[in-house]
Design a protein that fits this description.
Elements lengths: L1 E8 L6 H7 L9 E9 L5 H7 L4 E5 L5 H14 L4 E4 L11 H9 L5 E5 L10 H18 L11 E4 H6 L9 H10 L4 E5 L15 H19 L1 H30 L6 H46 L23 E4 L1
Parallel strand pairs: 1-2, 1-4, 2-3, 3-8, 5-7
Antiparallel strand pairs: 4-6, 5-6
Helix pairs in contact: 5-7, 5-8, 7-8, 9-10
This protein binds guanosine-5'-diphosphate and magnesium ion (MG).
Length: 340
């Protein structure tokens, strides 16, 4: 069993040593632990610090591409490295790396495909009452959309089985956390959760500058995820509402006709009704088209899974590229860096 612990980093030189020091060196049931640093265009000494602390595997971005992309590229690299399990933790030492052994347990036992650490925000004094409520509400909405039961949907401390990585295709740039749950739920992957206590925060979140921005971006990710998997449900419901609203002016027109019998009057009602009915009809058409696109997406995802399995199947050893910041004789055995 090979475990890859992935740490996406954007300028984490200060806290990365703490993270690296707390990643377990041995875990029962795991033969090999590889730490993979995904450097998302850091301009500080993040990579040097990682090398000084013994990290040998890197994915690097020349510029900042965002956490979603960093996760995606790290996960692909983990598959190339032959990971049976991928654990993601953050470079700001927010999560308790010493709990990685517990996090991977359900995957080792074969009872889960993905395990998400529950930060138990209600016990965390650093979270305000409003933030706790928002976090709970966000998780509830995600669970509703995904058909899952995840207590902390925004937690980034997670373990993924190799097979689940073959099935997940993240496309959002901003955050993959919600998107992976919606995809996993719709693909009927088994998601488990373990409670953890987070470390005292080392700095403010850099992903969001305000709670309002966090809520807006999360809502967008959820709506997008829902439309991706259940477009028909959304557009047909909308068509139903518009049709019902459109019928009201028609009924009004008929009643007024009977009462005052004026053949030319109340035409505005007919106009409003007709517009609403046309909009309803358009929604049905959009629903049908988006359902066809969804079917297409399913086929493409099947093909992608197949391609990934062919590509990441345990083939021959990968070429070993030295870390350019070291002299060739200093490069540790098996060290590689890939640029994406
Ligand atoms: N903010 C931010 N973090 C990134 C980016 N790329 C990678 N990361 C890493 O993603 C992790 C989470 O970021 P953080 O600011 O702590 O967000 P939080 O999850 O809201 O606490 C950290 O390890 C960052 O170094 C990026 O483009 N923006
Ligand atoms: Mg953080």
């Amino acid at each position: 069993m090979r475990l890859v612990v992935q740490i996406p980093c954007l300028n984490e030189e200060r806290t990365l040593p703490l993270v690296l020091a707390s990643v377990p060196k041995q875990i029962p049931g795991i033969d090999e632990i590889i730490v993979l640093v995904v450097d998302d265009g850091s301009t500080d000494r993040t990579v040097d610090v990682a090398i000084e602390h013994g990290v040998t595997q890197f994915v690097r971005h020349a510029g900042n591409r965002g956490l979603g992309r960093a996760f995606h590229d790290g996960a692909q690299r983990a598959l190339e490295l032959g990971a049976d399990i991928l654990v993601n933790t953050d470079g700001d030492n927010q999560y308790p790396q010493e709990r990685i052994a517990d996090l991977v347990q359900p995957i080792l036992a074969g009872t889960a495909d993905i395990v998400i650490a529950d930060r138990q925000v209600h016990l965390n004094h650093e979270f305000s009452w409003r933030k706790i409520k928002l976090q709970k509400l966000g998780s509830r909405v995600v669970n509703r959309v995904a058909g899952t039961d995840v207590p902390d949907a925004a937690s980034g401390f997670r373990a993924y089985s190799r097979d689940s990585l073959m099935l997940l295709n993240t496309v959002t740039r901003f955050s993959y956390c919600l998107e992976t749950i919606i995809q996993a739920g719709n693909k009927r992957l088994e998601i488990d959760s373990i409670p953890v206590t987070t470390n005292p925060s080392t700095r403010e979140s850099r992903l969001f500058t305000s709670t309002r921005q966090h809520v807006a971006l999360s809502a967008r990710a959820i709506v997008r995820g829902y439309i991706m998997y259940k477009p028909y449900a959304i557009f047909i419901a909308l068509a139903g509402v518009l049709a019902a609203l459109g019928l009201i002016p028609f009924v009004r027109f008929a009643i007024l006709q009977i009462i005052d019998g004026n053949p030319g009057g109340h035409l505005q009602s007919l106009l409003v009704g007709a517009i609403l009915l046309i909009m309803s009809f358009l929604c049905i058409i959009v629903g049908i088209v988006s359902d066809l696109i969804r079917t297409n997406r399913t086929l493409i995802e099947d093909a992608l899974e197949h391609t990934k399995k062919m590509r990441f199947g345990r083939g021959p050893e990968l070429p070993r590229l030295p870390l350019e910041s070291l002299e060739p004789d200093e490069v540790p055995e098996g060290a590689t860096t890939v640029w994406r």
